[in-house]
Amino acid sequence: MNMPFYSSPDIKAHSRLLLDSFRRATGRHLLAPVPAREETAAALFQAPFVLLSHGTEADPVLNYGNEAALKLWEMTWEQFTRTPSRLTAEAEERSAREKLLADAREKGYSDGYYGVRVSSSGRRFEIRNVLLWSVVDEQGNDRGQAAVFSKWAYQ
After folding, report:
1. How far apart are CA 138 and CA 140, in angstroms?
2. Has this prediction a pTM greater than 0.90?
3. Among 10, 20, 113, 154, which residue carries the largest CB count within 10 Å?
4. Which regions of 9-123 does DSSP assign to beta strands (E)?
């Protein structure tokens, strides 16, 4: 029997990092009830909200997208995790996106953002009430940024 790709040790560890860093940044839980450690990856991947993250590269690359994110951006895991995160937004939206990222880096998180994004097929959609946070590990190391939202509308 094939195991789901999100059951790999790397994705399990990253899933736990997302969950823990969200709590540290916001004081809230991303999932309630909080899943057992061994169930975190499946719970986040199958969650009823969009969750994505990128790393710390000079041009950050997406390193996680849950099932809802993959569907919304119309990509496979392999496509999604090779995409520079700036390409999830249209060119005219990128300066507002950069301001959001900087605000979250400065404050730890930023809440209430909305903007237009584009899927791999060119389908435009507005994302609403986005919470973006800095992904920081237990040692205080910057590991990137992540975003979560549950409201979007196709344009």
Report:
1. 5
2. yes
3. 113
4. 50-54, 62-65, 109-118
